[in-house]
Amino acid sequence: MGRRGNIPFEQVRKHTGGTLREQEFIDAVSRSLREGRFLILIVGDGIREGVQSLTELVNRNASKSFVFGLIEVALYRFGKNRFALQPRVLAETEILTRQVTIMSINGEAHAVSANDDTDQQDVVRARKLRGGKGHLKEWWKPLLNMNFDDPEQEPPFWVATNNIVLNTPFPGIQIKAAALRDRDYVEVFLSGTRQGNVDVIMDLVKRDRRYLLDNLPKGTVIYDPLLGWPIACHSKESLSDADKYVWLKKTLNSFANVLRPRLRKWYEETRP
Q: Using an 8 Å Cβ cutoff, are 139 and 158 in contact?
């Protein structure tokens, strides 16, 4: 209290041998703020409630390059004035993003963010779609700002494989939608950013099969043998584009209502 000047800079310079210049420090901090690069630690002596919601927050903002840690510090008293502190890490993030630079045929460079919420195959397919087929996103625009019954469910986002994606409470598991213009194909399905993510939940999907079929839209299939999706639902009717939008909104909302609570439960069951 009462100290003046650039206190954070002075503290950092003290630990760097006095070689750090203030302008370098300011530039580095500004760059980190702009790019969302933070180390966020929440430390307390009794952290329990809200851990899941914090995990979802990290999951929904995985495009930011921050590292998040949740630390509980147990306090033990020895005598009148002696204490022992035992820190325990309750939750921490892995690497959330990495940047991949792709050179297109015409020599233009495009950066693709491949994060934990992006299918690894999406990055490869993005090479083919970016540059010539970006207009496909236009078809999905009526759905990109749709509202959900669940207030915690954020709107879908488009990926270069021409799907729209919903993140879920289970890291690495997503709800996706697919459709083809001028063709009788429209589908909503559960997918994973890696096959390992899907393998983790397959036994749980089979175990809760009856509940899922009773509550998800009519026509839902548990384990699609053709594409391998754990849960999938597609329309068997011939629909106009306007009707496809209606079907997709209704089905995506139903998937979010039924699967988000179930995926949250599955995540808690599978955490080490």
A: no
